[in-house]
């Protein structure tokens, strides 16, 4: 089994037990699941609802990539700019989720539903994740 962890907070975000596919020319991973409701505290919407958060997150990922995978910096920054335009244009469709530690510097997963209105899927920036074999 492979688990995918947030590159910054190291929180486990998902595993390969879910249907995963690359989207946005390989920049993002789309993870299909099923809806299970559970609440564990509140998230400050201002953390995820602003361009400042997105810009800060992109800078954090860029810094990690410069340290660990410098060949990915340019493709990530170029692709991310386009993907962010798409995210902001469809902002009202998304729900936002963080890892269990709720680290404000970590990734925020975007949740939307397929056209059937029932099947949820989450979007993650692939370069913001690290894979771990279990």
From TrEMBL:
This is Translationally-controlled tumor protein. One of its GO terms (cellular component) is cytoplasm. Residues 1-134 form the TCTP domain. PROSITE patterns: TCTP_3 (PS51797). One of its GO terms (molecular function) is calcium ion binding. PANTHER family: TRANSLATIONALLY CONTROLLED TUMOR PROTEIN-RELATED, TRANSLATIONALLY-CONTROLLED TUMOR PROTEIN. The lineage of its organism: Eukaryota, Metazoa, Chordata, Craniata, Vertebrata. Coiled coil: none annotated. InterPro entries: Mss4-like_sf, Mss4/transl-control_tumour, TCTP, Translational_control_tumour_p. Involved in calcium binding and microtubule stabilization. Acts as a negative regulator of TSC22D1-mediated apoptosis, via interaction with and destabilization of TSC22D1 protein. Belongs to the TCTP family. Homodimer. Interacts with STEAP3. Interacts with TSC22D1; interaction results in the destabilization of TSC22D1 protein.
């Amino acid at each position: 089994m492979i688990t995918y962890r947030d590159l910054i907070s190291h929180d486990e975000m998902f595993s390969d037990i879910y249907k995963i596919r690359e989207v946005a020319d390989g920049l993002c991973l789309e993870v299909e699941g099923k809806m299970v409701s559970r609440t564990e505290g509140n998230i400050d919407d201002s953390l995820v609802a602003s361009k400042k958060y997105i810009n800060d997150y992109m800078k954090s990922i860029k810094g990690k990539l410069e340290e660990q995978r410098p060949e990915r910096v340019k493709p990530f920054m170029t692709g991310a700019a386009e993907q962010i335009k798409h995210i902001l244009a469809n902002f009202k469709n998304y729900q936002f989720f963080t890892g269990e530690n709720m680290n404000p510097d970590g990734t925020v997963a975007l949740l939307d539903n397929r056209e059937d209105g029932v099947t949820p899927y989450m979007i993650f920036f692939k370069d913001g994740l690290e894979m771990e074999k279990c």
